[in-house]
Each structure stands twice: as structure tokens, then as C-alpha cells.
Amino acid sequence: MYMVELLDLSASELERRNLYKTRLNEFDSILVEYALIDSYNKFKENKKNYPFLDLEGLKPGSIGYGVLEENSLLHNDALVFFTEDRVKDELKEFIKFGDRYNIDKKTLLNRKGVDKDFALKFDIVTTFIENKGFENTLKQLLKSDFGLLIQPSSNPSKTGKHALTDYRVKVLSLETDPVVESLAKKLGYINIEKKLGEYDELYKEKLEEKFFAYHGFHYTAGGRRTAGIIASQIFRDMGMSFATYIASKEARTLTKITENEEKIRYVLVNLSNEKIRKLEKLEQGFREQFVYDENICVLQVTYDTTKYSRPIISTRIRKLDSNKKWLEIIKEMFIPKREFVDTRPIPCNIVYSHKDYSAKLIR
User: Fold this and answer.
1) SS (H, E, C) the chain
2) Res 6: pLDDT
């Protein structure tokens, strides 16, 4: 539902909100597996070294890439928009979806980039997130290298059920001025009566850099990441509850952006045997429940805004300081494997202290 305070929800609306949040958590696990674990396995199968991200790249403001594109071509990409409510047609002014891009057998058979065997065997029931076959349908469509939309089905008999409804979803313009202006006005960095174009070029460039930083990316980020954060700001301006998931070959991370101020990033980390042994002593069952292929773990890093990127109650225009960070890390956790549903994540503190993982577990 469009952003409403929890206290203002009816009992049925609150139940639907809780179901939506549960589905998002389940979907996190699915995409972590596709974007990170499946990517790692592809590198291994092709006898290539996986290009682990230096943990320095997780610090706010970092460029974070540090790898040549040809060394990360096997990495899976993803751009998925998951909304609590049906996306309104007025968004078609900014985002291409619907009409010829609905997911059905006829559409898939007539589109390039979709596996023909998959299209021939396609069953619409596999587009519903709670149904068997959903993960295969999702991964097949992600391979087609297009954005996907998950929203409540329009089928009256499937009211409230979230489904993959559209593929080839595309942000129609990667021009950032409108969304930069929107965020800058919300945070008080430009006059609400003025347009961004009325400010000098240097100030506009600084605001654009901060817009990327607000969403957890460097301003040099490529097209998929740019499209994801533009769409996120549009959804936010429309008052929607949403989650945007972005994975790219260059970044080697999975990023989740929602209507809230927090941003979440998942990344693979390669721990030494010594560190694994130390962690096993501190956390019973650590190797079985958290470790892939001897030494690989999934790290989740949560970012929040700082006082420089939060709205203030004032009519004065704020002074923009390029040196002030707009995000800060508020939480780091090792994430258990999907099958261990009763295992809790393990809080840690390694991004700023990554020379000794085991000494920085938060007890």
C-alpha cells in the first residue's frame, strides 16, 4: 500500500503489510543465491577465480569496483522492482512496463533473449512468488538481462498475491536532473520554488554526486545501477512501498533499496582457514550453517543516512558540504544459508577492521 503509518492501518491492511514484508525477506534470500552464490559457482565451474570485492569498497563514498570488466563477465546481473501495491499507470511516463511486456506464454515465445524451451513449457502459475517453479521462472527471466516487476496480480481470483507481472521493464530516461532536484528539495539543499537548472553547473554536479551517494553508489556507477536508483526515487516521490534490487558484474554485490532511509548490501567474503576455525569456536555450527565451499560467507551490510542527508524542519537553504558523508554503516552481519531458517545472522564488525574478522564479532 502507498506509504501510510502503521497506526493508521486496519487489521486487514496490517496483515497484508506483514505478508508483504515476509515475502520481501524470502525474496532477499532468493536473489542473494542468484546474484552471489550462483555467480560464484559459475566462476568455479569455468575454472576462473571469483573476483571478490575488497571490503574497502563497502565503505560509504568508495568507488568499490577494483576489477576489470572482462574478469567479472560470468557474474550475474539483476534489476528487480518489488512493490507492495499495483504500480499505477501514471508511472508509465517514467518507466516502461505493462502492455506488450506482461509475462505470459505468448509474449515469451515471441521475445528474443528468452530461452525457447523455457517459453514452451512456461506456466503462468510459476510467476506467483509462493508457488513451486517461481525461482526457476525468475532466474530464467533474469538471464534475459531485463528489469523485472513483481507486484500484486491483477487477476481478481488472486487478490493480494504477488507475482512476476512484467519483464523488459526499463527506466525511460537516465537523465538524473529531475530526481536529483526532488531529493535536494526534500533535504533542503535547493529552494522548493526553483529548478535545479537555475543553479550553477558545479553545484548541480555536487548534488548529483550526493544523489548517487544517498543510494549507496559512486557517481560513476553504470546504467543498471543508475536506472535502479532513478526508479527508486520516483517510487519514493509517489509515496510507494517498494524494494529495488540491483546486482551488476562490475559491483559484484546485491543492493536493496526501499522507501526507508536504510540501504542493504550483500557481498561474498573469502575467509582464511584460521578465521573459519576461530569463528567455529565462537559460534557452534558456523561452518555448516554459514560457509559455502570451505571459506565463502555472505556478508550483509546495512547503511543509514547521516544528519546531512535527512530532512530538517527549516525554511533556510542548507549549505552543501561535499566532504560530509551521506551514508554510514550501522550494521554488519554474516547471513546463514537459506536452508537454516532457524539460524540467526551473526553480527560482526569487519568493513573497517577487515584484517581480523574473528576478533570483531559482536557478542
Assistant:
1) CCCCCHHHCCHHHHHHHHHHHHHHHHHHHHHHHHHHHHHHHHHHHCCCCCCCCCHHHHCCCCCCCCCCHHHCCCCCCEEEEEECCCCCHHHHHCEECCHHHECCHHHHHCCCCCCHHHHHHCCHHHHECCCCCHHHHHHHHHCCCCEEEEEECCCHHHCCCEEEEEEEEEECCCCCHHHHHHHHHHHCCCCCCCCHHHCCHHHHHHHHHHHHHHCCCCCCCCHHHHHHHHHHHHHHHCCCCEEEEEECCCCCCEEEEECCCCEEEEEEEECCHHHHHHHHHHCCCHHHHHCECCCEEEEEEEEEECHHHCCCCCCCCCCCCCCCCCEEEEEEEEECCCCCCCCCCEEECCCCCCCCCHHHECC
2) 58
